[in-house]
Amino acid sequence: MIRVHGELDMATGDAFRRLVSSTIAGGHSKVVVEMSGVTFCDSEGLSALLDATRHAEAAGGLLTLVDLHPRVAKVIRITCLDRCLHIAAPDAS
Length: 93
Prior knowledge:
Layout: E1 2-8, H1 13-25, E2 30-41, H2 43-58, E3 62-66, H3 70-78, E4 86-87
Helix pairs in contact: 1-2
């Protein structure tokens, strides 16, 4: 499990991609990202989530987002990325 906090944006998107990439390279293709501490996500953050999802899928795995902050969940829903990202139900985390 990866716990992310703060903002997922232009300043942090690449670091998030590297973290997921190194986790997958370490043999963990099924990655759970705990997101309750992420209070802001812009277009670069959304792009980082999509890239990480694609990376996990290319490795035969799955990236699952859990405990989304309501503001981040709203951005994901408004942009229809909830159709592309795997998001666990709130009680499934």
